[in-house]
Amino acid sequence: MGTSLDVLKHEMVPDHQIMDEEEVAELLATYHISLEQLPKIYHDDPAVKAIGSELGDVIRIVRESRTAGRAEAYRLVVKRPKK
Amino acid sequence: MNSDMEQRIDALDLPHRTREDLKASLADRDVTEEQFEQILEMIFSEYQKSRIEPCEAVGVVAAQSIGEPGTQMTMRTFHYAGVAEINVTLGLPRLIEIMDARREPSTPTMAVHLLDDWAFNRDRAREVSWQIEAAPLHEFGDITIDMENMQVLVMLNKAVCDRRKISIDEILEAAPRKIREKRHFRDFDVEGDPKSVSLTFTPKNRESYQNLFQLAEHVRQVIVQGIDDIERVVVRKEGGEYILYTEGSNLRGVFEVEGVDTSRTRSNNISEIADVLGIEAGRNAIIQEALSTLNEQGIGVDVRHIMLVADMMCMEGEVKQIGRHGIAGEKESVLSRAAFEVTVNHLLDAAIANEVDELNGVTENVIVGQPIQLGTGDVKLIAKPINLKIQEKS
User: Fold this and answer.
1) Residue B286: φ, ψ to 5°
2) Nearest-neighbour CA in chain B from A41: distance (Å)
3) Which terminal CB of chain B, N or C, has fewer other CB atoms within 10 Å?
């Protein structure tokens, strides 16, 4: 019934890409940070599930920024803490 | 401008929009190599000037920039969105709601966009709205209480059912099931007759009139068509296409309905968006909702401040409120937390748990009377006495 929901096609969901290890290393080196200092995204986030990402991956998010036109953000996939 | 220059612009360390603007303004102009160099130099120095400096207290600036105009907002406003007459909370209460990251806004509403086959025809748009709007059983026929035989009789109206595109069988099946599942009322027997389009409900306890009336109320109010949380749907024409505005929000439910455009439909319930579409969509929702609430009141707040707030709220992978149950309550420092709200509790808990305050933040250092690590306070300069001596000699 109905049109199936594709989370990534929704206009409010920006582009999510899985980064490979080299890119992650480069990212951490440019900002002089450790992996844990990145913003987080939960492993059961609908967008994470849609791109088939796993725990420990870093996701590059290409946002349609209102100021810069296009901006990249990064999030580390972590487990959702139990309540 | 030649393609070589275009490539050089693309390789620059500038924001996407700045590069595009530069390309657009140079597109049909003749610039020499020398002029081009000069332009790039100017742009770079202007861009550097426009950037936030290290150690700038952006959070305080954002708080002030949203807080001060906030004092000019109306304390209590209800607004009817155009002719649709759908009630939405606006103004200060709405802004507080967004920052507090409430699970459920006080007036949840959705804007349901339709796919092309449905969006341009009023009747077809109405058909979708029947599938969404929660309709209780009493809208589909007459309900009478037979006190003599202790029964509740439902006579369905075939014309209404046909108009609303729901079959008699569906109602006969859904009504008793929904009473049991959604209304948690089980003490009855039911008999449906598709031929005479009627339903007969008999309570198990045939002695009590109170029980009979209770059953009748459940029968009347049970929702047989549509999505339970959506109380009202208004069809409006906007920019050539029909859009459904709803009172009540249930994104997951609406996405299942045929004809709904799953790429444009949105809700004003931020935590629902974060649950269904992910944290990044939640961040976008916070920015949009906060900005439209402020703009609707004629208050222009720079989007950067709101983006900072939204980023902070969505840092950890879920939408967190700004307050003692969210960002402010999870700070590392005891003194900083105590300075915000419920001071005594925090100090007492910290004392019991033998917590240590590293004095890294701003608030803690203000409390203990040390220079804060912001602006010039963050720069550690050591003046070497050697240099001073040289100056004295000369």
Assistant:
1) -60, -45
2) 4
3) C
Q: Which domain does A26 fall in, by range?
A: 14-78
CATH code (residue A18): 3.90.940.20
Domain assignment present for B283: no
Could you tell me the residue range of the domain that residue B169 belongs to?
Answer: 135-225
How many domains would you assign to chain B? 3
- Write out pLDDT tens, residues B233-270: 888 888 889 999 998 899 988 988 888 888 899 999 99
Q: Is residue A83 in some structural domain? A: no
Alpha-carbon distance B141 to B48, whole Å? 71
**E strands within chain B?**
77-80, 87-90, 109-112, 135-136, 141-146, 151-156, 188-193, 198-203, 223-225, 232-238, 241-247, 266-267
**A interface test, pick of B227, B277, B302 with most A CB neighbours within 10 Å:** B277
Name the band, by pLDDT with cuts 50, 70 and 90, for residue B79. low
* pLDDT of amino acid A2: 44
**Chain B interface test: which of A1, A3, A60, A76 (most B C-beta within 10 Å):** A3
Q: What is the mean pLDDT of chain B?
A: 85
Can you tell me the ipTM of this complex?
Answer: 0.92
